[in-house]
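Every protein is a chain of amino acids, and every chain bends into a shape of its own. The fold becomes a row of whole numbers, each drawn from a learned catalogue of backbone shapes. The protein below has been through that process, and both of its lines are reproduced in full.
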Amino acid sequence: GLVLFAGNIISVLMFLSPVAIFWRIIKHRSTEDFDSLPYVCTLLNSSLWTYYGIIKSGELLVATVNGFGIVVEIIYILLFIIYAPTELKVKTAILVGILDVCFLAAAVLVTQLALQGETRIDAVGFLGAGLNIVMYSSPLAIIRTVVTTKSVEYMPFFLSFFFFLNGGTWALYALLVHDYILLVPNGTGFLLGAAQLVLYAIYRRTSNPCKNVSGVVEEGREHEALISA
């Protein structure tokens, strides 16, 4: 019960972690070197787990928490598109169309038309677990910028931190209940989050202190699979 409660709180914080970044984007009227990929991946992940929570009895909390995530991620993506340069607007719109519309629609249609009962639920669960790994690794998209500029200004610190914390919490829960399907994506998230924090620690010392911002937090999220256990 305590681990489940902690996981829910961490999930909400993970969804809200990019607020500082988007306040900066609005204030500067520019997306600068921030990347939209983490938000696009998190929207897909949240959408799939909302679907999972709807089709599986007793998992209303999964649908509710991830439904909140959907709303938040849509707001982030719309703001990103508004303030991004034309090339990045197009790239983001294409990613949203492919992942958050076409892929999600295909997943829902295939599982509804071709699968039934527990088989459908298990298929959505496996797909969600795979997408969790993609979501956890999405902040790594900025790694080239960090290494090239030797600055962590655009490194999503809080996103990486919450991925690390979230992955660790749910990996522990998975071990306690012997749920290895749950353990794999969250154990991976824990390791990826740790790697990102190490990278941040290495380059933070070489970053321009005047340029560093606490808003190196980029969103992500979640994990919701874990709650579903």
Observations:
- DSSP finds ten helices and no strands in the chain.
